[in-house]
Every structure is written in C-alpha cells, then in structure tokens.
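User: My collaborator sent over this chain with a note saying "see what the structure looks like." That's all I know about it. Can you take a look?
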Amino acid sequence: TAAELTDDVAAAAGWLGPRLAAARSQVHGQPRVAVCVADPADQLRWALAADWIGAAAAVLDVRWPPVVLAAALEEVQPDLVVRHGPDRAGRPHTGAPAAVQEHHIGWISLTSGTSGPPRALGRTRQSWIASFPALSHLTGLSAADTVLVPGPLSSSMFAFAAFHALAVGARVRLLPGWRPALAAGAQITVAQLVPTMLADLLDQAGQSDLRPRVVVTAGAKLQPDLERRVRAAWPQTHVVEYYGSGEQSFVTARVGGDPGTVGRPFPGVQVEIRDDNGHRLPTGESGVIWTRSPYAAVGYLDETPGRFRQVGGWVSVGDRGRLDGAGVLTLLGRDRIATGGASVDPAAVEAVLRVAPSVRDVVVLGLPHPRLGEVVAAVVECRTDCRLSSLRRYARDNLAEAQRPRRWYAVEHLPRTGSGKPARAEVLDAVQEGRLLPLS
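Assistant: Without extra context I'll predict from the sequence alone. Here is the result:
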C-alpha cells in the first residue's frame, strides 16, 4: 500500500541520511547514491529515499559483468553505495522532503550495460515530472490502474514507468526478472514494456485471463505484425508506442495511424530534421532528428558531449528520420542497434572484441529479427583459428548481455575501403546475401 511504501522509504531515508553525511566527499554539488541491489522493489525504495533527502540516485544493474559494473561506479563517483535492502526496522526519517532546486539532478541513468563504455546521464526531477500529465492523457492512466513494470530500474524506461505510476496514485507491479508466465498471471491493467516482452505476453494470451486496458511500448520499433497480434488477441486494448532516448526523453508518440512510423511529436516537444551541418531541411527530406523540449536530460556527468549534442536549446543523439507534411516522423536509422529494448553501440562492442586473442579486426552489425527488432552480429577477421566457444566465452566475460553477439561469422580478410577501414556496407551485403556462413 501507499502507507507501507511511505514507511519503508522513510526508514531507508533515515538510514541513508547520516551515512551520506559522513561519507560525502564534497566533490559534487549534491550527494550521489549508487544503488546496487537486485530486487526492483528495493531499488525503488532506495531511489525514493535518496530523493527524499535531496540526493541523486543511480540504480546499477548487478547482473552486469564485474568490469562493466566497476566502470559504471567510476563514472557515477557515488558518495555512498548501497548493496542491501532497506532496514524496515530502522529509525525513520522524520523531516520533510528536502527542498530541491530546479537545476538539481534527481536521477542518474547509466547508458552502460548496452551502449558501450559507461556514461552517467543526469536529469532533473522536473524533466520527468513535467511529462507525467501528457503521458497520463495519452494512456488514461489513473489511480484505479495497476501498472506492470517488468524490468530493473537501471533501465530509465522502467524507472520512469514506476515513478509515473506512483505519481498518479496507481499500483505498481514489479517483477524480479522477466518471466512471461508470471507477467501474464498478474492482475494488471497497464503494461509498459519493450516489444519483445509484448510478444512473449501474447504467446501466453491463450493460457491466461490477462486483458490489459493499455499497452505502452518503447525501446525498439513496434513492428506492424506484432501490433496486429495485439489487436487480434486483445481487441479492446489501447496501444501507445513512443520513441525517444535516455538523453532526449520523449520525442514522438503514436496511437493508431501508420504503424510504419513513430507518430507525431510528443506533447511539449518540437522536432526538426537537419542536415549533417545542422541546417534545417524541408518537409519530407531525410536527415538528423533534433528536438527541443522540457524533458531532455541535463547531460553527461563528466560534461563531455559523446553522442548527445546540445545547440541553442536543441538536442540530438544522431538518429535519422523524415517528417511528413502532417508532422508524422518516420525513423530511418540509428547509430545504435535496437535489440529487445536495449540500445547497443556497435563501435563499443567492436572495441572490446578487437582485443580478444584470436581477433585481428571485427565488424559488428545489427541484423533484423522478428521478435527482438535486431540482433547483434559480429563478422570477425581472425588472427588465429576462431573457435565459436572461445569467442562466446570472451564476450560473456567482457560484454553486457545485450551487447553479446548472437550470430558470429569468420572471414580471412574483411573487405576494406580505400582508407583501409572495414567496408561495412560490403560486409552487411555479404551477410544478408548468404555469402558468409555463421560459425558453428
């Protein structure tokens, strides 16, 4: 219940407060807490407790390989790390919630685990709170709903879903891990999930009474055939698809309309298509997607730009698209591989694989997949004999789960451009035309 959650959070805040005061390095403008626990309910309690005392919380995925988790902690530079659930018998925090300045970071998300070297991204509380009414309007979310949040709060998508539900007084159903049968048996009215999870739920449709009032999908493009399956299994279900990024937050939303698009600008968001030099393009032309909105993140905590470009209040992560005359956006390409709701940086995966003992060079690609959207594939130029078992073992030890190639190919020599770089288009053609056989 809400009262029980408040008591739990007060106890957690009471535990955090004095320890954070003793541990603070004063390096940051406000304290930072890294949450390294597996239970999503405990993740939520700690995050809310940190917010109560004016600290910024970063929930890290304890399933990441140790090397990735260590790098994430180095990136966040927390004043305190919590590795256990809150002590519900502890002395509760009795003070009022801390006064939060408009510019204070309220949430730190990690682009790591899927997108390459860890990048800590800070956002204000208000950047999310400001978007709550618009999403509530699109989904009809109210205090009468129970919302399925089927993943860890280290994912900004799932963290947002939980906070939004609590803000409107709805109940939140957190899952310790993705279990389709458990999710299908949950008494929920709203499901916020990635398309591959939606496909799993639909596989259970004939064996459960689940009939969600609303399904909200993000993290990868909702394919038309999957949306048709939703309509067939749950004719009364309202489907909302949104497109965005951790850096930009919401960009567009689609409710009905052409399923090949990602819809119109989310309420409060302006969208422009620009060329590679930053000049605005006419309607119908393809280019880089730029947005201006009150929902965008502040930036990376280390203050280096990375893929997040900010110019005059407009921001971009390099995704490409096209706006039609009605303001509907078609997403044409991302620098990233969108797989099962994760966003994977191929260059980062290549950098890790290139130092594997048997690898001379490698090209990492995204290949179409009917359920995951795309899967990560690696085409390896071998230094010595490439054994699939060795490559998989190396990937398992050094890459997060979403980054690990699901398909491996080996070549004696990668095709090269005139400058000596791998000819990525030729490699992709060779794979798609079946001229390269997967390692087995």
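A starting point for your reply to your collaborator: The longest helix spans residues 2-23.
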